[in-house]
Design brief:
heterodimer; A: 593 residues; Sodium/glucose cotransporter; two-stranded antiparallel sheet; 69% helix; globular; B: mainly alpha; 2 helices; 78% helix; elongated
């Protein structure tokens, strides 16, 4: 059986399971559609949250970004896990006690202001659509590879499948499918990593293998540091970027995590306040299984790739074109070339492919001496690394099929969760809550599905020319959530900020961040409409991906200032805040307004 | 009526000290949270560079794995401690 058939088999079988579960648990009422009737155990909920949370960004993109940057991209690892501490300590139990369905309902009630609710809804929709763009980038990579078509065709096919899939069921269908997706995803991520760790270090646990030694007794990281610096690249374990951006980027990802609706919504579905606290912990347990493996995947892949291009060592001759074309160990290169995400060119016509850092002065000297005319690995899209990894390491074909299924599970589960959050924001908060309060249940569900269709169309269109690699686009979505939603939720629980403060805070934090991102990434992410780049950012050298934390500070500052100058909150809101702080008396969520 | 009033006052008092205890716990947890990630993982990494961990240093380990393990411990510790506090102050869900 060839690889293509095996991939199809694995992807097809996993899809059959998800769709089967979605049909079996199809949502009937609006309450089931949004919150699954609250019958979800904390461990189950944690697993579903993990699947929901770990998207194409975590699964496909993150290890690639770590592999080619090294230590500096640890920000992704700390940022996307550290946010759960904030969620568990500062938000989840209180929002569960409040007992409504959506984040914006809390904001509307706590700040006794339909305007606050509207602003929150709009912030949520924009952040979520940005997030979906990142997912579509990942979907394009995954479908492009396993159907052996171009990235664009893969993206369009993927969009149709994501849409069909998300429209099928609401949260309940999604909760149990996501448990299945988590299982597929984590097996697909860890199994190849275990193989590779065994090959390189003899340690079956990749997270430990990362700090282990290769067969010659030298620590893996030391070998990697040496081999990449010999080719003129930055030392893998060293801090090469600037500290300010690393701190702000980590912080943005952390507070963005605690401000994204599709994750917070998960904590509305546990039976009790005490369960909401455990749930965040369980979610992080399941997430950590992948996140502790990811740095090992990145480092080991970087080592494997570099050694493939320099099979005799970095001081000897590079790999020959003939070997790339005939040696089965290099088959992955031809497969990935078809997707347009990998490219090489024998610039100096010596029949070999030299992969090195052409901007390094030391390497330029060596290039001149050896007759090289530039780096000949002309294109290596970081997003392909995780999918290509098992092929690079020559793992059995079933592992490669499994990874394809896992990548799709990751992108699909998050896209579905986000589409659900967007559709509930439009139908529940915008239409039922504001515009057409008397809408029937049936029409509310219809509006929810139309909203899904529109957002996936927009995300697909923008996903064709994404503002960055999947994880970078997703990071922008986190910045937006960090600047708008997290501060206002926190102030709603921990302070007595009033309605005007909240609206002013959200608007200023969100708009400043959005404009800052658009200035660097293009207006509405349309390419070539940007005035600045992240290489030379506008404000104190802060990159647009790191700006969310600044937006959050603006949000807090404006909210407290405006609130201090206007009328304090009424008595009944003070009572609401006090009741949210105490678990006793929590009831099942009720349909608001 | 009088009984009811003192009862309510006592409850409000208990509620206040419960909230103070919660805030203390949150602050302790968040200090550890920041120390391990932003501290050991990034800003204080140069200070830890002398401590070797498998081919790199302790700061690198904290940035790539250590902080995640600490986050896990913090969440479970907080959940366990708070669920106990809920019962001590009589504000738990029955």
């Amino acid at each position: 059986m060839d690889q293509f058939t095996i991939n199809l088999l694995f992807v097809g079988a996993s899809f059959a399971i998800y769709i089967g579960i979605a049909i079996w648990a199809r949502a009937g009422s609006t309450s089931e559609f949004y919150a699954a009737g609250r019958g979800v155990h904390p461990v189950t909920n944690g697993m579903a949250t993990a699947a929901d949370w770990m998207s194409a960004a975590s699964f496909l993109s993150m290890a690639g970004l770590i592999a080619f940057t090294g230590y500096d991209n640890s920000a992704f690892l700390m940022g996307w896990t550290g946010g759960y501490v904030l969620l568990a300590l500062l938000l989840a139990p209180y929002l569960r006690k409040f007992g409504k369905f959506t984040v914006s309902e809390f904001i509307g009630d706590r700040f006794y202001s339909p305007t606050a609710r509207m602003v929150a809804v709009i912030c949520l929709i924009i952040a979520s659509v940005t997030y979906v763009i990142g997912q579509m980038t990942g979907v394009g990579v995954a479908f492009g590879r396993f159907l052996e078509v171009s990235n664009t065709t893969g993206l369009l096919i993927g969009a149709v499948i994501v849409f069909a899939y998300a429209v099928f069921g609401g949260m309940k269908g999604v909760t149990y499918t996501q448990v299945a997706q988590y299982v597929v995803l984590i097996l697909a991520y860890t199994i190849p990593a275990i193989f590779i760790s065994l090959q390189l270090t003899g340690n079956p646990i990749p997270g430990l293998g990362l700090f282990g030694s290769t067969s010659d007794g030298v620590p893996l990281l030391q070998t990697l540091d040496q081999i990449v610096t010999e080719l003129g690249f930055n030392q893998y374990t060293a801090h090469n970027g600037d500290t300010l951006n690393m701190v702000l980027f980590t912080l943005s990802l952390m507070i963005g995590t605690a401000g994204l609706p599709h994750v917070i919504m998960r904590f509305f579905t546990v039976p009790k306040v005490s369960d909401a606290r455990w749930s965040a912990g369980w979610a992080l347990v399941f997430i950590a299984l992948l996140y502790l493996t990811a740095p090992a995947v990145g480092a080991m892949a970087r080592l494997n790739i570099t050694q493939q291009f320099w099979p005799e060592g970095t001081a000897a001759q590079a790999v020959s074109l003939e070997q790339i074309e005939t040696d089965p160990a290099y088959d992955w290169m031809a497969t990935w070339q078809k997707t347009g995400m990998l490219g090489w060119e024998d610039k100096n016509g010596d029949g070999r492919i030299q992969y090195y850092n052409e901007t390094s002065p030391a390497m330029q000297e060596r290039a001149a001496a050896e007759g090289w005319t530039g780096n000949e690995l002309t294109n290596f899209n970081n997003d392909i690394l995780v999918l290509a990894n098992p092929e690079i390491a020559n793992l059995p074909s079933w592992v490669i099929g499994l990874v394809a299924a896992g990548g799709l599970a990751a992108a699909l589960s998050t896209a579905a969760g986000l589409l659900l959050a967007i559709s509930s924001a439009v139908s529940h908060d915008l239409m039922k809550g504001q515009l057409t309060p008397n809408i029937s249940e049936k029409n509310e569900l219809l509006a929810a599905r139309i909203a899904m269709g529109v957002s996936i169309a927009v995300a697909t269109w923008l996903g064709l020319n994404p503002p960055g690699f999947a994880a970078q686009t997703v990071a922008l979505a986190f910045g937006l959530a960090a600047a708008s939603i997290f501060p206002v939720l926190m102030m709603g629980i921990f302070s007595k900020v009033n309605n005007k403060g909240a609206v002013a805070g959200m608007l200023s934090g969100f708009l400043v961040t959005l404009v800052y991102i658009f200035l660097h990434k293009g207006w509405f992410f349309v390419p070539d409409t940007n005035s600045f780049t992240d290489a030379a950012p506008l404000f104190f050298g802060i990159k647009s991906t790191s700006f969310g934390a600044v937006g959050a500070v603006i949000n807090f500052t404006v909210a407290f200032t405006v609130s201090g100058m206007t009328k304090p909150i009424p008595r009944e809101i003070e009572e609401l805040v006090e009741s949210v702080r105490i678990p006793r008396g929590a009831s099942a969520a009720v349909d608001g307004h | 009526m009088a009984d009811h009033a003192t009862n309510t006052a006592a409850q409000a008092e208990a509620g206040r000290s419960y909230w103070q205890a919660n805030l203390r716990l949150i602050i302790i947890c968040l200090v550890i949270w920041a120390l391990c990630s932003f501290g050991f993982g990034i800003l204080l990494r140069p200070m830890l560079s002398g401590i070797a961990v498998g081919g790199s240093d302790l700061g690198f380990w904290f940035a790539q794995q250590g902080s995640i393990l600490v986050f896990l411990a913090l969440i479970f510790f907080y959940a366990w401690r708070m669920n106990k506090l809920d019962r001590e102050y009589g504000v738990d869900e029955e």
